Amino acid sequence: MQKKIFGISLFIGLLSVLAGFAQNPIVQTYYTADPAPMVHNGTVYLYTSHDEDVTVKNFFTMNDWRCYSSKDMVNWTDHGAILSYKAFNWSRGDAWAGQCIFRNGKFYYYLPVNQKNGGNAIGVAVSDSPTAGFKDAIGKPLLSGFGYIDPSVFIDDDGQAYLYWGNPQLYYVKLNKDMISYDEKVGIVKVPLTRQGFSARKKDPEKRPSEYEEGPWFFKRKSKYYLIYPAGGVPEHLAYSTSNGPTGPWIYGDTIMKVIEDRGAFTNHPGYIDFKGQSYLFYHDGSLPGGGGFKRSVCIEPFSFNPDGSIPRINHTQSGVLKSVSNLDPFSRVEAETIAWSEGVKTDQDSLTGTIFVSNIDHGDYIKIRSVDFGKGATKFEATVASLSSKGNIELRADSLNGKLLGNLEVKSTKNAQNWKAQLCKINQITGIHDLYLVFKGEGNNLFNFDSWRFIR
């Protein structure tokens, strides 16, 4: 009996340790894949595809695209499902990997779908906002053909924009300045997948001679152009090639990330940004509970280029981004769906107002927020919540699930699950920078919905 109790205590202790150090996958409320990060005005916007919780016909079940944002690379705010394949009335489904870019005051989102009459196609949606309002820009596919998936867009220093895409082949076009058409004089260019440019495949070389598989990510660093991509067939690893020009010729570099054999997904998909002086590789695995090849999750690893511009071998980790690039201000309104790590909860959207909020809150669930700067201290905590009952509580703890108890907010009924009310509690003194844990307690399930919070000096 003592051994059993000791074993349970050890297991709980391990969970607490993991909660303290895990950062990957960066989204725990949904299965997300195919990360496409974009830096705009000091914020990272992360666009992802979305693997549904229920897989249909043992294949990718993907109906919409989601967006998350961060100013510190550790806390990510959920903006919900910002676009569905139904936004393209010529599409019948399969919302796969896309990429968004800003130009001329608008955001252009290039997205692959399947057409109603069959076949792959790439559409383009446009919006004035990075997180909402995307509409089909041209009412038809921008590009259509076999294997026309996984578009990657880039604007060069001279203003010329390029769109790369394709599986099993690799193509590009030169986009016009309107970003919704391409230079038809140059047309669609098929990139030679040579041994020199993309190495030689070891598995089934007769079918596909090169290592290139799909999912290109195109960018420029200093004077060198890079393509990073899933390679080698299933299960995929990540590799890269470089060029002195935006259209090649390409020279194969090396493997960036080995096959993630112990993390569940047989695909991978890269994204890259440099943010506040640090380079980051985005990718996906299948490591969330219930995850796998059709239920993937986005991860991030910081890295540094080698002095010659080559990319080092990057290991996949659970810790991910260890250091935030800025601290979170708890005295301004913080969306409840701003999360570094969570257990149990989901997010949902108010059908009338579009408000994103935290839902599915049960006893023992929690949200962790990293690098919260309390400054010289706070006296009260305010949460905007909606609840049918008065059976829920929010425990405020510092630095760990069982850390210093700062306060306890007893959530009172608002008589409606989306009737939002601000509720207050006093807190114990805390100063300086800490991780904050919002630990949910109560009787029953779906204790309340949670929209936002702030501390009061």
The largest β sheet comes out as: 6 strands, antiparallel
Proportion in helices: under 10%
* Radius of gyration from the alpha-carbon trace, in angstroms: 23 Å
Strand count: 33
How far is the N terminus from the C terminus?
49 Å
Shape: globular
Strand content: 35-45%
Poorly predicted sequence stretches spanning 5 or more consecutive residues: 1-18
What's the average pLDDT? Answer: 94
Give a written overview of the molecule.
Residues 332-456 form the CBM6 domain. Residues 1-22 form the signal peptide. Keywords: Carbohydrate metabolism, Glycosidase, Hydrolase, Polysaccharide degradation, Signal, Xylan degradation. By secondary structure, this protein is mostly beta strands. Helices cover 5% and strands 43% of the residues. The protein has helices at 2-21, 195-198; strands at residues 31-40, 43-51, 64-70, 76-84, 91-93, 99-103, 106-115, 120-127, 135-136, 143-144, 152-155, 161-165, 171-175, 189-190, 217-221, 224-231, 237-243, 251-257, 271-275, 278-285, 297-303, 334-335, 338-339, 341-343, 346-349, 356-359, 366-373, 380-386, 392-398, 404-411, 421-426, 433-442, 449-456. Strands 5, 6, 7, 8, 9 and 10 form a six-stranded antiparallel sheet that branches. A hairpin with a 5-residue loop joins strand 29 and strand 30 (404-411). It is globular, with a radius of gyration of 23 Å. Residues 1-18 have low confidence and may be disordered.
